[in-house]
Amino acid sequence: LWFLIYGGFVLRSGADRFIVTIYPSSGPAAFSVTMGLIALAAVLKKPRTMVRFARIVKPVLMGVLFMVAFFSLFSLDFSNLLPVTVHDVMPVMRGSVIAVDVVTSAVFYICMLEGGCTDGSAGRFGAFSRWLTGSCLLLTMLSVIIVGSFGAELCVRLTKPFFALVRNLVFFKTVERVEALVVMLWIFPDFLLVSSVLYSAQYCLRLIFGKDPTYNGERLTDFSGGRWVIWLCCAVCVAASLFIAPTPASLDFWSATIVPYVSLAIFFVLLPLVYAAGRMRKSI
Fold it and tell me: How many domains, in total, are found in the chain?
């Protein structure tokens, strides 16, 4: 159930990003439903489809991020970054909860997809270690350019500081106001995350119902083998996006408090307990 609520939150936050930056007079329903249906089409096929899509999108997004970081260097004010004192430790730790949730969630959903994409060969620890190192460095780079450009106090007041940064950038002294293009590119990570969440949710539910969750070449409209669960999960996910966080203030509360802390409790408390119980019962 939490996977579906989390997927609904991703749909809702993605819709809010569009509304705030590009379409201020529109509502979130159209964006949430459209993205949910696109994710449904991906989950109904092989999980390798999502992996291939991620490999295609990755260099594009990384190129955009590094381009933004490069041009942000010209407006960077290092006085906004230094000095760092002992009193900054606790605020930084509280702010890092969201970043920890992002990387741990990604690792978890990758592990869920891995069962349908690989043969479980060795070397996963090294691969995940390299991925986590790169992700932490990327998050650090983004934090430096955003805080260095706006300062800590202004960053707190901004709704979406990264896109505010992009809005103020000028590329090659001629191109500006490219935030709409960057926001459009962020559809791809939203699609991958929602698809991964839906895949994980339907995989677990079909196992609970005693069905084989692997894809065996079924058509999109084939409901055999418990595949109706995929449609049900998509409907619940979209419905959750329409009802949770009806206001920007409530969405901020979800993104800063509910989602990261519940996710971390699942990843670092519930799952280790499940693993320990499985080992004790010799079922793992």
Answer: 1
